[in-house]
Prior knowledge:
This protein is mostly helical. The chain is built from 5 helices and no strands.
Amino acid sequence: MDARETLVHLRTFPTTLPGALAEEPDPLTRAQLVGDLLAALADIEMALKAVRQPAVAELRDQGRTVRAIAAELGISPARVDQIAKGKRA
C-alpha cells in the first residue's frame, strides 16, 4: 500500500473505528484499546512530523517563500516558518 492509499484508508477510520471500538463489550478492554490507539497515534504523529519538517525546510532551501509554501500547503505562513525551524513541527 503506497502513501496515498494509506491516506485514503486512514480517512475511513473516523467513521469505522469508533463504532468498532464501541462494540467491545468489556469497558476495561475498550478503554485499554482506545489508550493503546491514542499512544500509537502519538508515535505516528511524531514520525510524520520528522518527515514533514525536513521537507518544508528543503522547500525553503530551494528558494520558495514562506507565503508560497503556505499557500500550497493550505496553512499559515507563520506555521510554515515554525515547521521549517522545527518548532512544534
